[in-house]
Write a structure and sequence with these properties.
This protein has about 600 residues and is an all-alpha fold. It folds into two domains: about 5-50, no CATH class; about 75-610, no CATH class. It is built from 21 helices and two strands. Strands 1-2 form a two-stranded antiparallel ribbon. It is globular.
């Protein structure tokens, strides 16, 4: 009887057919494959726990034994720390990038909104054309393919070849279609942020920015393949290079062409200015993508282009990706609607650029905390689901939800209390400060549902189910569309961006609730009572913490145009003081009531602090 783990038994027959005990005509059924003198291929080594009594050892061994049952808790903590560290550094540089962009171009004028629109479309289009082939599909499929006889080599080669080829063709097509895409995302009109000159400038930027679609796609394909092979660091550290390049491009732009308000008029932009800013943005994404190739050998695989796309299981991947594609289509339709509604704001009102800034601030706790914890959990849940261990999937969902909700609640409370100095850090005028802080608070109301939605979706994805999240996404799309329609019809121009953010919050909350109810039924429980009790406790601790932070903000003159909003430097100091106050009170209260999740949640943070 073979002693291999369950995931290896599928290869036992082929292994046994070529393994013979030394000196015998055939192997007795009770023999272990490991005791045989084996002439089977290297892939049969997994049937013997990684050792064979004879024959050459494989030349290339994966550093991560993907046939092993699952990622252990220690690996998850180390991976979470690595991901959080990379994300933190990247986000800090991202904020520097935003601050430099605001200094060079401003926040609420047609020029910066033209660049913001053109530079946002590539990531939206990437999500549309390749989003269904990234984490939701690739990680579970690569984990399963790793149990093939070749360790997943053929599957990964064919998948990457297909993905890169398709995305290159699509990138060329969308770049040529730039004049058609800009009117799709923005409404042109007199007295709005996008007049004829702004639309022409956005189109010129789009020609330089749209090639990013290809580099985004290759970055995601390589990065998710690395994650599936338990090489978690490079994917989250690569954006650091992108931010460095973009900051350098903006600094060079300021040195050569000056700063705001010289660039508020879209008709004043020259081809050289457009090329430097748009080309610098694309160069950063290209570098972010190409740096991942330096880490490919860590997967234990060798990439060779393979255009024979039949017979390796891509059909199952395509089916799963099909539902994901549908989900991304719904997402992109809502983004188009959001952008069009935002473009109804006045020329000096909060619009696309402010929404982008507030969204990046909103995503800070989600990307550093929720994403870094959920990513290694997702790999482990995929392994559990592949082995049919639904109970372990349920346990991982409960653990990850409780820890993530605890952390993002505290972080969201800190950012919300410091919203006004955050606005002063990125804004140049009182109107920009109010616009950024108001939109940020509207987004933050939905932070916990948004992060919970992310985890719950990955529960479905680990089970190989992308159809159910698609159907729930349709419901979310209908919800946000109705809310955005109300904003377009009822909101005054200065409040349009706030209305867009609130519509997003409402829709995310509805989506998270429905996902939880359906997944609870699917896996026969979600430890819902414990998750809800803990969530209520975290919210209760956040209330006095926010009160303390707002008190500090008042003392710093945040509500009277005092120190907290005087300039960028004082705003930064105020953000630090208010945020530290909120976090200190929040975690002190959790420590006082001895919340069990505190130890699990703070372990990666302590590791992160030691690294930094």
């Amino acid at each position: 009887m073979c002693t291999a783990p369950p995931g290896c038994r599928s290869t036992r027959a082929s292994c046994a057919s070529r393994c013979r005990p030394s000196g015998r005509a055939s192997a007795p059924s009770s023999s272990s494959c490991c005791s045989w003198r084996c002439s089977a291929p290297a892939s049969c080594a997994s049937c013997c726990g990684g050792a064979r009594s004879g024959g050459p050892r494989p030349r290339h061994r994966s550093r991560t034994r993907m046939s092993d049952p699952a990622v252990d808790d220690g690996t998850i903590r180390r991976a979470s720390t690595t991901i959080a560290a990379g994300t933190l550094v990247s986000r800090v540089l991202g904020f520097v990038n935003l601050a430099v962009l605001a200094w060079v171009l401003g926040q609420q004028n047609p020029g910066v909104n033209a660049f913001a629109l053109a530079n946002t479309i590539p990531s939206n289009l990437f999500a549309l054309v390749a989003g269904g082939l990234t984490s939701a599909v690739l990680v579970p499929q690569i984990v399963r393919a790793a149990r093939d006889a070749d360790g997943g080599q053929a599957f990964v080669n064919k998948l990457l070849t297909l993905g890169v080829t398709a995305c290159l063709a699509i990138a060329v097509l969308v770049t040529l279609a730039a004049p058609l895409l800009i009117p799709l995302y923005a409404v042109q009109g007199v007295g709005t942020v996008f007049d004829a000159d702004a639309m022409a400038l956005a189109t010129a930027f789009a020609y330089w920015c749209l090639p990013q679609v290809f580099f985004y796609a290759v970055y995601a394909l390589l990065g998710e393949a690395l994650n599936a092979r338990q090489v978690f660091g490079p994917y989250t550290w690569a954006p650091v290079l992108n931010n460095v390049i973009l900051i350098g491009s903006l600094a060079l732009f300021a040195a050569l062409f000056g700063i705001d308000p010289a660039h508020q008029d879209p008709a004043s932009w020259t081809p050289a200015q457009i090329a430097l800013l748009g080309g610098g943005a694309t160069l950063g994404i290209a570098a972010q993508c190409l740096v991942l190739t330096l880490f490919w050998r860590r997967t234990g695989l060798r990439f060779r282009p393979d255009f024979h796309w039949k017979g390796v299981g891509l059909r199952a991947t395509g089916k799963a990706a099909g539902w994901m594609f549908g989900m991304i289509v719904v997402t992109q339709l809502t983004i188009v609607l959001q952008t069009r509604v935002a473009s109804l704001a006045g020329p000096q009102d909060a619009s696309v650029a402010v929404l982008n800034t507030a969204w990046l601030l909103f995503m800070l706790p989600h990307s550093i905390l929720a994403l870094s914890i959920a990513t290694p959990y997702f790999t482990r849940m995929s392994a559990h689901a592949s082995a049919g261990d639904v109970r372990s999937v349920r346990d991982d969902l409960s653990s990850s939800l409780r820890v993530i909700v605890m952390l993002v609640t505290g972080a969201g409370a800190a950012i919300g209390a410091a919203a006004i100095p955050f606005g002063a850090f990125f804004g140049r005028t009182p109107a920009e400060v109010v616009g950024i802080s108001s939109v940020l608070i509207a987004y933050l109301i939905g932070l916990v549902p948004f992060s919970a939605m992310f985890v719950l979706q990955r529960g479905f994805f680990a089970l190989g189910d992308t159809r159910t999240p698609f159907l729930i996404k349709v419901l979310q799309g209908v919800t946000v569309s109705l809310a955005l329609l109300a904003v377009a019809l009822l909101a005054p121009k200065p409040q349009v961006a706030v209305g867009v953010a609130l519509a997003t919050t409402i829709a995310s909350t509805v989506q998270a609730l429905v996902l939880a109810l359906v997944l609870r039924h699917r896996i026969h429980g979600l430890d819902a009572r414990r998750v809800l009790v803990r969530t209520a406790l975290f919210f209760a601790a956040a209330v006095p913490a926010i009160g303390a932070g707002v008190g500090v903000l008042a003392l710093l003159g945040g509500f009277s145009r005092g120190f907290a909003v005087a300039n960028t430097g004082t705003a930064f100091v105020s953000v630090a003081l208010v945020g530290a106050t909120v976090l200190a009170v929040y975690f002190a209260l959790l420590l006082l009531v001895r919340v069990p999740e505190l130890q699990a949640g703070l372990t990666p943070l302590r590791r992160l602090l030691r690294r930094t």
